[in-house]
Specification:
about 130 residues, Cytochrome Bc1 Complex, Chain D, domain 2, 7 helices
């Protein structure tokens, strides 16, 4: 048992993502994103955008967080090949958004770096 506590202590001390954080991201994805973006991240053709091979998923973390918070339906002159605008997810906490977006990047992105709480907080300050 002391090995597990020691490992958790090391993870926390180094600031590495915990297994619980990754599981929370997966659960949040399943509950909030999977219906449209699907379990494999490929979306629904002509309806919901794929996350796989997405420049937005692989792009700037703050912009990604802002887009998920505001939703595409709230962006004036949004141009898309997909008919269903994405709703905003401002109701998720900064930690929840960082967790789910980190999960999305690790599962579907080619750039595997995390989205930090600081990225999400900066996006939230940006507003609409």
């Amino acid at each position: 048992m002391w090995v597990n506590k020691a490992l958790v202590g090391i993870v926390l001390a180094l600031g590495l993502p915990s297994a619980a954080h990754a599981l929370d991201g997966a659960k949040l994805y399943k509950n909030n994103c999977e219906t449209c973006h699907q379990s494999d991240g490929w979306g629904i053709p002509f309806m919901a955008a794929p996350l796989v091979e997405s420049n937005i998923v692989d792009g700037d973390a703050e912009y990604l967080a802002w887009l998920v918070m505001t939703g595409t339906g709230n962006i004036k002159d949004w141009q898309s090949d997909f008919s269903t605008p994405m709703p905003g997810f401002k109701q998720l906490s900064d930690d929840e958004l960082a967790s789910v977006l980190s999960f999305v990047r690790s599962e579907f992105g080619s750039i595997k770096n995390e989205v930090s709480i600081d990225d999400v907080m900066a996006a939230r300050m940006r507003g609409n």
